[in-house]
Structures are given as C-alpha cells and as structure tokens.
Amino acid sequence: MSIGTSSGKWGRRVGSVLVLVAGVGALLTIGLALGWFRTTGAWVVGGLGVVLVWSIWQWQGAVLRHRRAEQALQALQAEPGAANAVHSNIAGQGPELRLEESRQLLQAILDFSPTIIFVKDVEGRYLMVNRGYSEFYGLTEDAIRGKNDTELYSEAVSQMLRAHDQHVLETGTRQSYLERVPFHGEVRDYISVKFPLYDARGQAIAVCGIATDISEQIKNERLLREKEQKIQLAAEGAGLALWEWDLTTHTLQADSRLFELLHQPTETTTLNRTATLALIHPDERAGLRQALTGYLDQPTTPAAPFRLELRLLTGTREWKWVLVQGVLRTPETDGQPRRLIGIVQDVDAQKKYEQSLEQQNQKILDTNRELESFSYTVSHDLRAPLRSIDGFVRILRQEYTDVFDAEGRRMLSVIEDSVQHMNRLIEALLNYSRLGRLEIRRTTLPTAPIFEEVFQEVNATYGGSAQLRLPDALPAVFADRNLLRIVIWNLVSNALKFSAKKSRPLVEVEATSDEHYHTFIIKDNGVGFDMKDVEKLFQVFQRLHVAHQFEGTGIGLATVARIVKRHGGQVAAVAVPGQGASFTFTLPVHQPVASTWEPGSAVAMDV
Fold first, then answer.
1. If you placed Cys at 11, which of 22, 99, 406, 511 could pair as Cys (CB 3.0 to 4.6 Å)?
2. Where are the beta strands (DSSP E) in 147-290?
3. 491 phi and psi, to 5 degrees?
4. Other Cβ atoms within 10 Å of 573 Cβ, number
C-alpha cells in the first residue's frame, strides 16, 4: 500500500471522526438549548440526526470532488500536456485539502456553539476545544491542547473530572454530570454531557464533552426556593394556608395547613371541582361563583386581590368561617390567565364575635325601644292621678281654707309644689322619649341669634342680672332648628342656674371649626362640680347637686347628649368646684352616617 493511499485513508478516517464530533456537538448544543433530550426516544432521534449530518457531509464532499474533477478535465482540454501535473495534484494533495476543509468546517461549527465543547484522549489530554472553552480560560486552543485537567484545575476538581471521563470510557455510554468548576474567583455550575468516541476498529480513542453553564439557573432556583421558604414561614407564622386553583383543569392545590385548619385528613392536597365544592357551605356556593365570575370577567387583569368570606366544612362536620384572598397569575406566552393563587385565613372567632356584637346591639336597640315605649306609657298613666291630686288640693284650698291652720296651709303648698315638680318630670321624660322617634330635619342655621334669643328668655327667669359674651362670629351649622334650640336652651339654663348666686353671673360662648366638625363651648362662673362624677353627668335622672339647692329634673343634660348624638356629634364637660364649668358639644360639618350609639357617659376634656 502506498504512502499516499494510506494517508488518504487515514485522512478520511480522521475527517469522519471529526465530522461526527461536529455533528453530534452541534445537534446536542441545539437540543440542550431547546430542551429536546429529556427522554430515551429523543436521544434515538438525536442519533438519527447525527447520521443525517454525516450523510450531508459526505454528499458535500462528493460534490466538491466532482467540481475539482471538472476543473481538471477543463485543464486537460486546454493543455493536454498538463494531465500528469493535474493527476499528481489530485492524487497527492487532495486528501490534505479535504482534511483541512473538514477541520475548518468542524471548527466553525464548534466555535459557533454557545456551550463549551472539548475532546480528550483516553489519557485525559485535550485534543481539541472550541472557542467557548478558550474564552473561558482566556487561553488559545493551542495553549490548551495537550494539557490535562491537573494542569488547569485544582486537585479536587481535576480528580472529579477525570473520574467522570473514566466512567464514560468504562461504560461506553453517554453520561450527564453536574460539575462545579471555579471561574474568576467564583464557582460555576455546568451540566456536562460526555460520550466516548471510537475508531474504525471499535476501540474508544477519546471522550467528547459538551458543557452548558447553568449557574444563573441554579442561582435563580435557589433564590426562588428561599423566597418560597420565606413565604411558607410567613404563612405559618400568620396562620395562613396557601392554595392554587387551576382555571383549566378546575383543580385545587392546597398546602397541608388548609386541611389542618379544617381538621381534615391530608392524604391528598389536590381536590377536583366536586371535592372542592363539597367543602363550601351550600348557602355560599352561588355567591362564590358569582364573585369569581365577576373577578375573572374584568377586561384587564385585576390589580386588587379577590376577597370573600365563606364557611368551609371541617372534619368534625362543623362550619368554619375563613377569609379567602387570591390573585390571577398570567403566563408570558399567550397572556391568558391560567391560575388563581392565594391564601386562606381563619376568621371564625372574629366572625362569631362580630355576630355576637350585632346580636347584642340589636338587643340594646330593642331594649331602648321598649324603654321609650314604657316611659311614654308610664308618663301618660302618671298624669291621671296627678291631675286628681292637684284637683283635690285646689278644692281644699278654696272650700276649706278656714279649717286649716298655718301648718295645714303650708302642707297644702308643699303638695302643690310636689305635683308641679312631678308634672315637669313627666313632661321632660315624655320629651326625652320622643327624641328617639322624631325625624331630624336639617337646614343651615346661624347659631348666634339662637344663643341670644335663648339667653334673653332664660335670663329673665333668674332676674336678668347675668351677662352673655359671644365671639365676633359663630359658625352656621347643618342641624334641626328645634332640636338645636333645645340643646342650647338646656346648656344656657344649666349655666345660669349654677351661677345665679354669683354677684355677676357670666355665660361665655366659644366656637372653633375644622374640616369635619364645629365645636361649641359654653362656660359659666358658677359652682362647678367634682370631675369624679362626670360619668353620671349626661345620664337620665343623675344629679350632682341636691334638689333643695338647685332645682331641676335631671333629664336636661341627657336630652342634650341624645340630640347631639343623633346629629353625629359628641358632648363633654370639664369643671373645677367653685370655679365654674365648661360644656362642649360638636356638630359635623356635613351630614354624618347614622350611628347606633346611645348616650350614657360623658367624655372629660381639657379646655
């Protein structure tokens, strides 16, 4: 066999191996990037692809050789004497040219790959690397070729890589490894696919490897796991259960805490549509369906979470109130929502407490209505005997006046005074009970004329010696005129009553306003009161002074509190014994929301 023939066969053999490596490298690179090779069947298809690459290369080589033959024939036709030279060129230099072209084609394919590709001999020396490997180390291919891993890596890393190569040669099969390799002061993670290369006699002559850097993927996965762990810990700390509803399959995936919350078995945490509906109270299924439909049918992805309170069935066959919240998760592919994920919070105790409060409030309202009806009835019934007593006293005074001595006439006067006091009490009680039924007719009212009118009326009953001091301007209020006049009348009357024994009684009015409330303060220089009794001040029939010193029914300030509260305001009082008192009431600037609060206590405040 001639040297030229032997060289040609060896060249073709080497070229075949290199083209095979190129084809496998390119195919595996693309396949790994696109996620093809996940099953055995996919690897069979990959093998067929390698054969296809090999066939295409052979066809390209045949075409190239055909073109060169045509060029030679053309040269022979042009210069018959040149036949020997052309024959010598084809026979001598043809294999080297084909080998060089194959090598260049292989290198171009490998350098184009974004992965690291290399070939090592059975001793672990590098025979070939692509540009990605060279750039990884900042060395040229020639500088790497002929070296082994011991010269490039630490002892631990080189031993790991060598062990993987030996495993591939021993098993004769493709293997995948996660290899951690230091790079510029940090450790990078690679998925390395390694497989043996054989010569024409079937002997393993090299190991080919394709390594893909997955460091960022692993880092992101680690961060995602850490984030999920934090969410899990936060959910556990807050007593929350996580859930996910698949809008395509209509299945519920929930964590074990939901079933622990419901005292349900946790053999499975995935429920289908039927099993999910079985957990929900029948009275709330329609509302849940309607709420979900409205939430999902919005033209854009809702920014606010889905929220709904409902009852779920527990393992003890009881119903537990929970708060369900969720948000849509839309994939980046088609923009259509696929999942609804969220949390479940146990609000059973809170819900039952709210229901208890509602029941108690309703009982209080019912009791108040009964008391109003009772007081109204009693007041009417009490007037009949009082009228009889008053009539008999009149008869005794008119027809039997000569019979009574001075003490008898005094006792008749006491009876008359008591009847009149009782009548005033009954009238005040009737007025107080009517307040709960009166319709409030609000209008915008100037307050200064009401203060002046009431003061003149009340001051006349106390001798007209008191003085009223008003600010330059008082705010207009949005209130019922008749009810506001009752408030002002009671407060001014109260101020004059407890300051009447002063040499110069004074009633002073102050007012301030903000964006929410008008505040009025009525001050006097009277006897004041002890602040330890302030809680009694605005309650019915509660008096801080004895009746023989200061007359009154004990209902006036309770009436003030009730009227002000019905307008949406508040009352308060502060005093110093012997130095006077200050009574404050507020009225909202705008019409308030109705309240169920009933007066019963005062709020002390500094002025």
1. 99
2. 175-183, 186-198, 204-213, 240-246, 251-254, 270-271
3. -70, -40
4. 23
| 360 contacts: CB under 8 Å, gap ≥ 6 | none
**Would you give the DSSP letter of residue 594?**
P
Name the E strands within 330-376. 339-346
Residue 510 contacts residue 503 (beta carbons within 8 Å): no
Reported in sequence order, the residue ranges of 276-356 that DSSP labels E, i.e. its strands, are 306-313, 319-329, 339-346
Residue whose tokens read 């949005």? 478
Structure tokens at 354: 């709210």
E strand or H helix that includes residue 400: none
Distance CA 548, CA 464 (A): 22
Neighbour-count burial for 35-72, b at 16+ CB within 10 Å, e otherwise: ebbeeeeeeeebeebbeebbeebeeebeeeeeebeeeb
| Angstrom distance (rounded) from CA 325 to CA 463 | 70
User: Does the reported pTM lie above 0.90?
Assistant: no
DSSP β-bridge partners for residue 189:
180
Return the amino acid letter for 255. D
Q: Is 580 left (phi over 0), alpha (psi -120 to 50) or beta?
A: left
H-state helical runs in 462-553: 481-499
pLDDT per residue as tens digits for the range 328-385? 776 555 556 678 888 888 888 888 888 888 898 888 888 777 777 776 677 677 777 8
Q: Quickly count helices (H) and strands (E) in the chain.
A: 16, 18
Q: Rounded CA gap, 579 and 530, in Å?
A: 11
Q: How many CB atoms lie within 10 A of CB 259?
A: 20
Tell me how far apart the alpha carbons of residues 418 and 466 are, in angstroms, rounded to a whole number.
Answer: 29
Tens-place pLDDT, residues 480-519: 888 898 899 889 988 888 887 787 888 999 999 998 999 9
User: Residue 252: CB partners within 8 Å, gap ≥ 6?
Assistant: 243, 244, 245, 246, 270, 271, 272, 275, 276
List, for residues 192-212, the tens digit of each pLDDT value: 999 999 988 889 999 999 998
